[in-house]
Amino acid sequence: MNALLLAVDVPPISNVTIWGAGPLGFNKTAAIYVFAALATMLVFVLGTRRKDALVPAGLMQNTAESGVGFVRNQIIMQTMGTDGLQYLPYLTALFFFIFFSSITEIIPFVQFPANARFGMPLTLALVTWVIYNVVGVVKQGPLHYLKNSLIPPGVPKPILILVIPIEFVSTFIVRPFSLMVRLFANMLAGHLILVTFAALSAGLWAAKVTVVIMPFSFALLVAMTGFEILVAFLQAFIFTILTAVYIDSSMHPSH
Amino acid sequence: MALLHLLLAQAAADPTKGLTAIGRGIVYGGAAIGPGIGIGLVVGNAITAMARQPESAGTVRTTMFLGIAFTEALALFGFVLAFIISG
């Protein structure tokens, strides 16, 4: 139990790119991801035990059923329609995994969002990238997929010289990159805000003269902690719905 | 300019440190201008749409979050870039 594991010391910002030491490189980030994966599995294994029961009961079954209902109605039906229901298991698992690995940001004594290190957001973004490209190639054929994703409908011929490189960069490079940066930078920014106000509160408490303004800093710390619950939920929602939108653009090209 | 000279005088031992900090501030500040305006437009128009047609609020809200996500990505690029810059 060293100080880094308990999040009591504030490492310099350059630690963002350093995968810390430990047996097999197993650190706090990895531990949180194991927790998130186990929690996701636990919700659905325990939530689906009572298969014959019509009325849901218990925390796990209610969580699992409302989670599936949320992903189905708010994400898939809004973007892909009934065609996309085959992606319901993956998108639900994605939503719960991202939520569980981000919500550790506000859990006492953990207080670190694992997604503030860009390894896992990058991996998830690459999985999304592979899925929507494979779906596009399988559903439309390689040439049609390339044509539909590079040439927007209704563009005059001469402008295509300009449009095709832009569309190529935006579809195949910027999409997974922005997906990764969005999740990673949002969690990192939220974590830095909480660290700043926590360190400020502690510093003001220690300083004798300026202790009068310490309650304001502490109040903002509490408020931002509440705000981070919203951010963790919203980022899981946005990552999932963007995955759905990208798969939809491969399934149903605009004509 | 006066502020710059003051900072340079303070960081006389290592003047690049102060300049790096200024550069980081400019990068993130500049990157936040456009997305700030953009998110304001997205949310403002979404509220107008919801007020005019409350029955379509669900669809508008989903689209609004998508628009916010695409717009704020630029600000987050600036946020990450500000950390990448090293003096």
Task: Write the topology of this structure.
The complex is a heterodimer of chains A (255) and B (87).
Chain A: H1 3-6, H2 28-47, H3 59-79, H4 88-103, H5 119-140, H6 142-150, H7 160-206, H8 214-251
Helix pairs in contact in A: 2-3, 2-4, 3-4, 3-8, 4-8, 5-6, 5-7, 5-8, 7-8
Chain B: H1 2-10, H2 15-52, H3 57-84
Helix pairs in contact in B: 2-3
- Give the topology string of chain A: H per helix, E per strand: HHHHHHHH
Name the pair of protein chains with the most residues at their interface, and give those residue counts. A-B, 19 and 13 residues
Q: Tally the beta strands of chain B.
A: 0
- As a percent range, the share of helical residues of chain B equals over 70%
The H/E string of chain B reads HHH
Write down the overall mean pLDDT of chain A: 86
Beta-strand residue percentage of chain A: under 5%
- Main beta sheet of chain A: none
Percent strand of chain B: under 5%
**Gyration radius of chain A, in Å:** 22 Å
Q: What coarse outline of chain A follows from CA principal-axis ratios? A: globular
SS-based class of chain B: mainly alpha
Major beta sheet summary of chain B:
none
**What's the overall geometry of chain B?**
rod-shaped
CATH class of chain B: Mainly Alpha
CATH superfamily annotation of chain B? F1F0 ATP synthase subunit C
